[in-house]
Amino acid sequence: QVHLGESGGGLVQAGGSLRLSCAASGRSASRSTMGWFRQAPGKEREFVAVMTWSGGRPYYADSVKGRFTISGDNAGNTMYLQMNSLKPEDTGVYYCAAGFAGGRFQADYNYNSWGQGTQVTVSS
């Protein structure tokens, strides 16, 4: 069992920055691959970024490449999402995910642990 808790969301103007945090606890093997997803009002949840604690290359959705950076602390307990040059279309609830079961890492159904989400609102 993995427990996840997001924080750091808020209201920001377009062009601004936010850093989201995801505190993780529980079975470390289930946290080897962790990701960020987001859900805008009226839309399905979508992939944002994924990382592995072993130091492999992170992957990003095309819509956030060059603007967002996923990272983790040395202890392996907290994952971050640094979001720069924010746009109104980045608005949504951001979730961190763990318990990757294999398959496409962009697919939310391949993760079995989720946080409660944190709201990000970008005003124009």
Report on this structure.
The chain is mostly beta strands and 124 residues long. It contains no helices and 11 strands. It has strands spanning 2-7, 10-13, 18-26, 33-39, 46-52, 59-60, 68-72, 78-83, 92-100, 111-114, 118-123. Strands 2, 4, 5, 6, 9, 10 and 11 form a 7-stranded mixed beta sheet that branches. The protein is globular, with a radius of gyration of 13 Å. The termini are far apart.
Q: SSE layout and pairings?
A:
Elements: E1 2-7, E2 10-13, E3 18-26, E4 33-39, E5 46-52, E6 59-60, E7 68-72, E8 78-83, E9 92-100, E10 111-114, E11 118-123
Parallel strand pairs: 2-11
Antiparallel strand pairs: 1-3, 3-8, 4-5, 4-9, 5-6, 7-8, 9-10, 9-11
Mean pLDDT rating: 95
Q: How many strand elements?
A: 11
Terminal Cα separation, in Å? 40 Å
Amount of beta strand: over 45%
Helix percent band = under 10%
Class by alpha and beta content? mainly beta
The quaternary organization reads as: single chain
What's the total helix number? 0
**Main sheet?**
7 strands, mixed
Low-confidence stretches: none
- SSE run: EEEEEEEEEEE
Rough outline = globular
Radius of gyration: 13 Å
Task: List the defining traits of the structure above.
about 120 residues; mainly beta; four-stranded antiparallel sheet; 11 strands; about 0% helix; globular
Summarize it.
The chain is mainly beta.
